[in-house]
From TrEMBL:
Assembly mode: Homodimer.
Region (ACP-binding): 276-280
EC number(s) given by UniProt: 2.3.1.180
Native source species: Sphingobacterium wenxiniae
Keywords: Acyltransferase, Cytoplasm, Fatty acid biosynthesis, Fatty acid metabolism, Lipid biosynthesis, Lipid metabolism, Multifunctional enzyme, Transferase
Protein name, UniProt field: Beta-ketoacyl-[acyl-carrier-protein] synthase III
Gene for this chain: fabH
Keyword Protein biosynthesis appears in the UniProt entry: no
Ranges of residues in domain Beta-ketoacyl-[acyl-carrier-protein] synthase III N-terminal: 108-189
Active site: C114, H275, N305
GO (cellular component) term, any one: cytoplasm
Domain remark from Swiss-Prot or TrEMBL: The last Arg residue of the ACP-binding site is essential for the weak association between ACP/AcpP and FabH.
Function: Catalyzes the condensation reaction of fatty acid synthesis by the addition to an acyl acceptor of two carbons from malonyl-ACP. Catalyzes the first condensation reaction which initiates fatty acid synthesis and may therefore play a role in governing the total rate of fatty acid production. Possesses both acetoacetyl-ACP synthase and acetyl transacylase activities. Its substrate specificity determines the biosynthesis of branched-chain and/or straight-chain of fatty acids.
GO molecular function: 3-oxoacyl-[acyl-carrier-protein] synthase activity; beta-ketoacyl-acyl-carrier-protein synthase III activity
Keyword Glycoprotein: no
Length: 348
């Protein structure tokens, strides 16, 4: 029976550091407020020009591929998770394929926001288990900084997010009990509009309670207009409290589901790597599951919330710091827009 193992892992974050204090130049906020509510001290922003979701993904992928002892030309499938693609379409997968000189392999882009990487890993796991592919590149990358409202109006959303990329190469293993043990994916669209970027989109706003009345609605809402920028509807919307409330329930639930499936308990986890949504959420989850500090890895303090990139960046940093050893039980878990959530249990 084939199982999938993470054969190589890498991450990349842009060099530009923006501290909480730096953000006070643009909006009415404070280091104290941001740290108290989110744990974040600083985040990275990509260069405005020249650095994109794809270029960051390439840097992370190069490291993952090298550590897997393989080459870009040996990769036989790409799964790219992002909510901030270089183009509305096509997705970043084909850009990465082209720029890395890969063969004419399949490239799948997925849009599951903060759970994007866990969803991508689960898809890759199925392809490896069936023997269809042998070297899958799974990427999570985000350039949030291009579309955040840096005025005081947007402070509840913009202070949280940062840019970066993480990647893994998944390969088959026949080693008994090693690799990805199981993955668990969920969604509930009941609160889809509570964390979303509505435009540009083809709906013309029909799902929204307070549909703005611009003349452009006649065009189906596809266009980004001056009015949208002025009234803030062009930017991501988040009902932070609704997200928080759901996240603190669904994180423990989906971690518990993964443990139960494998007849394990929280005490068996060597390292939980939760999506870095908010340090307070991670701490709540830790407390609920009664995990010690050394059983949970967080790095949101330095990078903010990098959505699809946060799990692979954190996983890679933890591994580089020697916090993941051969035979360890590693749990990945994520929750985000959609809502979507998921977990993966890995015997390293
Ligand atoms: O990956 C999934 C993505 N999202 C999340 O995980 C987010 C989950 N939610 C959260 O992390 C929190 O809800 C936030 C950190 C986003 C917000 O914290 P909160 O405790 O829910 O604050 P709030 O939105 O209820 O706002 C409280 C006050 C408001 O002022 P008033 O109305 O009480 O006067 C806000 O205007 O804090 C104000 N505020 C800020 N003040 C300074 C909101 N953002 C800021 C800010 N700096 N950046």
């Amino acid at each position: 029976m084939l199982q999938s193992k993470i054969a190589g892992i890498g991450y990349y974050v842009p060099k530009n550091v923006y501290t909480n204090q730096d953000l006070t130049r643009f909006m009415d906020t404070s280091d104290e407020w941001i740290q108290e509510r989110t744990g974040i001290k600083e985040r990275r922003y990509a260069d405005r020009i020249g650095e994109t979701t794809t270029t960051m993904a390439i840097e992370a992928s190069k490291i993952a591929i090298e550590r897997a002892g393989t080459t870009a030309q040996d990769i036989d499938f790409i799964i790219f998770a992002t909510l901030s693609p270089d183009y509305y379409f096509p997705g970043c997968g084909v850009l990465l394929q082209r720029e890395m000189g890969m063969g004419e392999i399949g490239a799948l882009d997925i849009r599951n926001q903060c759970s994007g990487f866990v969803y991508a890993l689960s898809i890759a796991d199925q392809f490896i288990k069936t023997g269809m592919y042998k070297n899958i590149l799974v990427v999570g990358s985000e350039k949030h900084s291009f579309a955040l409202d840096y005025s005081t109006r947007g402070r509840g959303v913009s202070v949280i997010f940062g840019d970066g990329a993480g990647a893994v190469v998944l390969q088959p293993t026949t080693e008994e009990g090693k690799g990805i043990l199981s993955t668990h994916l969920h969604s509930d669209g009941a609160e889809a509009e509570k964390l979303a970027m509505y435009y540009p989109g083809a709906s013309g706003g029909i799902w929204l309670d307070n549909k703005p009345e611009w003349p452009e609605q006649e065009l189906g809402g596809m266009l980004m207009t001056k009015e949208m920028l002025e009234d803030g509807t062009a930017f991501p919307y988040m009902d932070g409290q609704a997200v928080f409330k759901k996240a603190v329930v669904k994180f423990p639930e989906v971690i518990g589901e993964a443990l139960a499936k494998n007849n394990l308990t929280p005490a068996d986890i060597n390292l939980l790597v939760p999506h870095q949504a908010n340090l307070r959420i991670a701490q709540f989850v830790q407390k609920t599951l009664r995990l010690r500090d050394d059983q949970v890895f967080n790095n949101i303090q330095r990078y903010g919330n990098t959505t699809a990139a946060s799990v692979p960046i954190a996983l890679c940093e933890a591994w580089e710091e020697g916090k993941i050893k051969d035979g360890d039980l590693v749990c990945l878990a994520a929750f985000g827009a959609g809502f979507t959530w998921g977990s993966a249990l890995i015997r390293w």
